[in-house]
Amino acid sequence: MVEYENLKNIAPADKRWEKGYNSCLLADIWVKNPTRYEVEELKEINSKENDFCPSYSTDDYSSIVFTSCRQSEDEKDKEKEAKKSAVSGMPFTNLFESRFDRKGKWSNPTAIEDTVVNTEFDDGAATFSADKKIMYLTFCKIETGKQLGCRILAVKRKGTEWGRSRTAKNS
Fold first, then answer.
1. 111 lies in which domain range?
2. 57 and 14, same structural domain?
3. What are 161's strand-pairing partners?
4. Is 116 exposed, middle or buried (0-12, 13-18, 19+ CB in 10 A)?
């Protein structure tokens, strides 16, 4: 808070100091008055690798999809995993799914078995439409000597499977 007060003295016209200062005040209030929510690690889902960007994929919150560069159990992914991202230096990412069962446990995450969703390149950062019938995800194709960038794909659910994708937007 002292530093935000210093910023106010140096640049009083810049109102960003006020937002930072107020955030510190709120943080203090939140620590003194915690909510009923607790954040805890889901050990049955997390791996030692980069696991990130979870999204509920069903209306009843019984299934999540997340991105990970973990090693897949599936033999067909071994070639993909040998390749590394030039950006992160980690193996290319895939989308994984875990389901919450009737016993109150999350299942062992499995890679989504769909070559439209999980390609030989970096895939990830999925989110879903309100009705959970369309998955939006990023896809970053790599070709030697070309700068292709990443794309956002929209994939429609057909029953329990994901269908053909279409590009929603170039980035």
1. 51-170
2. no
3. 158
4. middle
